[in-house]
Design goal:
Catalytic activity (chains A, B): hydrogencarbonate + H(+) = CO2 + H2O
Low-confidence stretches of chain A: none
Helix content of chain A: 25-40%
InterPro entries (chains A, B): Carbonic_anhydrase, Carbonic_anhydrase_sf
Number of helices of chain A: 6
Oligomer: homodimer
Pfam families (chains A, B): Pro_CA (PF00484)
Mean pLDDT of chain A: 97
Number of domains of chain A: 1
Function (chains A, B): Reversible hydration of carbon dioxide.
Strand content of chain A: 15-25%
Cofactor (chains A, B): Zn(2+)
CATH superfamily of chain A: Carbonic anhydrase
């Protein structure tokens, strides 16, 4: 209940070589002009597992690493901050594979029947098949009319059992 | 244009001590029952700067680290995966402080006048004041009727100039 109290101590360690690593002068736009979209899952460390250093890339994370839910952020990234490449990562053993939107809506409506209308309006974006959904999310972006660059978009799976990534599309 | 090609090489390095670190057997639910909401900004490495290790915490990232945009993911995290604490981080020199939703909608409508209607429906969630918006996002979560726990929610600012974090609320 007070995990946040550990943040300050860990942060003291992080800042020790912050100036030495020249991190204070990094520019706002991502140096490698890339956006990584991936899941919020606790087992993932995108920076460590993909070699992303401070200043390199926008990293968007949400439940499932879903592209439709990342659209607002991607439009800001491309139109205001100059990114041109997107890599979408989903992962094995994802929680999103274990339920349907209908099921979660039912759980919430049982707890909060007075909010049934709002709950029914939330699309939880669960998906039943991993590789298939990576392809769907990449297709969603490739076909989106408001993106600056619809070509340089790749789709990947991260294996939580091994730490390995494989490109799907 | 091909940054993603570097991912495989960096990933080879990451997996070298994956078994030694016993990362393959981590459970799906976050061990520390906490969700961190923060910005997609390239200069941020939440794992390194807050001492979050694989398995510890859900990490949600979007443009600005906005709580309203993270709601779908937070509901999944709390109701299906047992988290009870939330820490919201925004940061200095954030791109979201440099424009308004109206301005970005205008930029997009100039480029794509045929999609004006859809563009007008996108709330880009820009904000003019940093600390104030951290407080607003924490209040949004504390007042939200569908959260499991409305008490253990903190708000923070990360300083990109120094790497330091400070608690706002």
């Amino acid at each position: 209940m007070s995990v946040h109290k550990s943040f300050a101590g860990a942060n003291d360690e992080y800042v020790k070589d912050f100036n030495e690593r020249k991190l204070g002068g990094l520019a706002l736009p991502p140096g490698k002009k890339v956006v990584v979209v991936t899941c919020m899952d606790a087992r993932l460390d995108p920076a460590a597992s993909l070699g992303i250093r401070e200043g390199d890339a926008h990293v968007i994370r949400n439940a499932g690493g879903r592209a439709p839910d990342a659209l607002r952020s991607i439009l800001i990234s491309q139109h205001l901050l100059g990114t041109t490449e997107i890599a979408v990562f989903h992962h094995t053993d994802c929680g999103m594979l274990t339920f349907t939107t209908d099921q979660l809506q039912s759980i919430l409506k049982d707890k909060h029947p007075e909010h049934a209308k709002e709950i029914n309006e939330i699309d939880f974006l669960a998906f039943p098949q991993l590789d298939e959904n990576v392809k769907e999310d990449v297709a969603f972006l490739k076909n989106h009319p408001l993106l600056v660059d619809n070509e340089h978009i790749t789709g990947w799976v991260y294996e939580v059992e091994t730490g390995k990534v494989r490109q799907v599309v």
